[in-house]
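User: I've been trying to design a sequence by hand for this structure and keep getting stuck. Would you show me what you'd pick, starting by listing the structure so we're on the same page?

Assistant: Good idea, let's start from the same input. This is the structure you sent:
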């Protein structure tokens, strides 16, 4: 190649070509990074849906369907407990907590209604206590 035959236009064209290649490579790099981010998120989604097997030092992670089944099992247990509590909060055969509270309230009403009568009897039966004599300070 004859380097002395190169003109200023040839150098400008070569420089423009290099700049164009650099700009194109930069655009491609940005696009590759974006696609890599989307692919990474897609892989994470697939891992969440399908689960991951156990690896060295990392426990297995169940997939979405296994986690959903575990949640349904847990909800069945909670439903049983809520039904037991609901049974205690409703009136039934006299054995529930609600029935016991109703019995306590009824006896409480009877006691409160009887207080004025009993207080009147107590007040009538008790004689007032006389005031003690006041002593003088100058007496030994």
């Amino acid at each position: 190649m004859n380097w002395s035959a190169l003109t200023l236009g040839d150098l400008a064209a070569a420089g423009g070509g290099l700049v164009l290649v650099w700009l194109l490579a930069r655009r491609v790099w940005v696009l590759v990074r974006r696609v890599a981010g989307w692919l990474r998120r897609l892989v994470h989604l697939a891992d969440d849906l399908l689960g991951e097997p156990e690896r060295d030092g990392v426990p297995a992670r169940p997939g979405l369907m296994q986690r959903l089944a575990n949640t349904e099992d847990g909800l069945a247990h909670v439903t049983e407990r809520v039904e037991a509590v609901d049974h205690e909060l409703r009136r039934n055969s006299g054995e529930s907590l609600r029935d016991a509270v109703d019995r306590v309230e009824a006896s409480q009403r009877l006691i409160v209604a009887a207080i004025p009568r009993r207080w009147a009897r107590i007040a009538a039966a008790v004689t007032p206590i006389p005031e003690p004599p006041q002593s003088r300070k100058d007496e030994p």
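That's my pick for every position. To get oriented when you compare it with your attempt: The chain has three helices and no strands. Residues 70 and 78 are 13 Å apart (CA to CA).
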